[in-house]
Specification:
This protein is α/β, with parallel strands linked by helices. It has one domain: 3-Layer(aba) Sandwich (Rossmann fold). Helices cover 48% and strands 13% of the residues. The chain has a 6-stranded mixed sheet, with helices on both faces. A hairpin with a 4-residue loop joins strand 5 and strand 6. The protein is globular.
Length: 241
Amino acid sequence: MKKLQSKLRKACEMYQLIQSGDRIGCGVSGGKDSLALLVALCEYRRYAPTPFTLTAITLDPCFGGQSADYSAITALCESYGVQHVIKRTNLAEIIFDIRQEKNPCALCARMRRGALHDLCKALDCNKIALGHHMNDVVETFFMNLFREGRIGAFSPKSYLSRKDLWMIRPLILCEESEITNAAARSALPVLKSSCPKDGHSEREAMKSFVRQKEIEFPGFLNRTFTALQNADVSGLGKAEK
């Protein structure tokens, strides 16, 4: 976890992600990325140059009409003195039962983001932290390139003017393999997704593509990310003011 904390701190300094007095809502789905982000932010809070508050926020899609058990995550939050807010939703019912979406991932992502942003505002947070990492950046770049002919990824931080809310990605300099190893070593209470599309999405196909290129061309992931930084694609090369 120390390696993740070091890279998180570097990202916060490089991209000016956290300012004094920030009230940060950390999106916690229960996956390894969001749990690693939560713990890394909790640890960073102890020695950060500027004070900030942290709230863990979970949206339960209620797949199969059933509420998920987040008690282990709540216990983790309590061990760090962090409030854990859980909101039960009917996202799964809307997407799979009512609308019967054949390609539900994009709609689900939009609806989850909207609900998460609204909950952050209701909790008086001015920033929402998400667990996106280096692999997500590279995968998004190639998805945009192959599907839309567009050069772009996503930014280390973005201002959502309609919500008056900043979205930050403190793990953006971390590789997914580093997060996986840290989560395992720290025995984080990772929850397996109950989504029926888990492992069968377009994103998963792009993950396989990047993994294969890493085998064929060792260092492919880091070189691609460095190229995006050097070209300042989507604000990756410099701090946004």
